[in-house]
Amino acid sequence: MAATALLSSAPLPSSPNRSILPTRLKNQSKILWKQKKCGKFTACSEFYKEPTFQYGVSRRNLTFIALSSSLSLIFPFSGFCAEEELKMGSSVDDINAYSYLYPVELPSKQFFFKWVETRKPERYSSAAPLSPDARLRIVSERVDIIDNLIISVSIGPPNSQFLKSKEKSTWSAKDVADSVLSDKSALRVTSTQRLAESSLLDAHASEIDGEPYWYYEYLVRKSPTKTAQEPNLFRHYVASTAERDGYLYTLSASTLGKQWENMGTSLKKTVASFRLLPPTESYVPPYKDPWRFW
């Protein structure tokens, strides 16, 4: 299968006014800083420079700006600034030291996402397992039940069947995806059978702040509800994985396949924003107190 880009979008239009690009970048960074203050993030197809900050800016604001500024470097969003505006909320988990942005509103379509935090951030030892062997566990989750959207963060050790080396710089995006997906099943089946439940569409890697992040897109071909009649009903996922302390941290976002055309772009922006943060005093590494469940 020919590899396709994780974010399928039209190529960026060439601009005849390249000479004014530095000025446009400078202006865009100012606009983004103002939009952050009112809670609005605008997705653009042009790169922009990250503003310089002095001491006194909060950790949450720094995280929000840092995430927003790198989205276009990972995924080449299609369209222009005037075409699509997306308000994003920020989620920061100090227990597991990561953050991400999630869609809140599409003002142009007067559409509001209806998120419910079904799992508040918790330590790995007390988190809900995704498989009988309890290797992969959900440490936080938010759901939009009405629009069939799920954003979850899971943590688990690498599967040595796919990631044989301990040197993460040698890992391919496909092997990382296979490692995560092989442990992602509530059924008592083998790793190979769990992997067969999913169809990997694309996988690629990107280096951010000197650390590799692996991005992949896949389908799970099974009905998410007992009442679904369509035999080919599936969920469409995008995910980002990073490694720390010998564990894989994965953010995944999904919706029903028939809703992907409308929701896919917003979910891809969420996945692109996922970052591991420098640990604070609140950070609890996955290997600490594995017996503790509170």
Secondary-structure map with pairings?
Layout: H1 21-37, E1 41-42, H2 59-74, E2 85-93, E3 98-106, E4 111-112, E5 116-119, E6 128-129, E7 137-144, E8 149-156, H3 173-182, H4 191-196, E9 198-208, E10 211-220, E11 235-244, E12 247-256, H5 260-272, E13 275-276
Antiparallel strand pairs: 1-2, 2-3, 3-4, 3-13, 5-7, 6-7, 7-8, 8-12, 9-10, 10-11, 11-12
What do you see in this structure?
InterPro entries: Mog1/PsbP_a/b/a-sand, PsbP_C. This protein is an alpha+beta fold. Strands 5, 6, 7, 8, 9, 10, 11 and 12 form an eight-stranded antiparallel beta sheet that branches. The radius of gyration is 19 Å and the shape is globular.
The gist of it:
The strands form 2 sheets. Strands 5, 6, 7, 8, 9, 10, 11 and 12 form an 8-stranded antiparallel β-sheet that branches. Strands 1, 2, 3, 4 and 13 form a 5-stranded antiparallel β-sheet that branches.
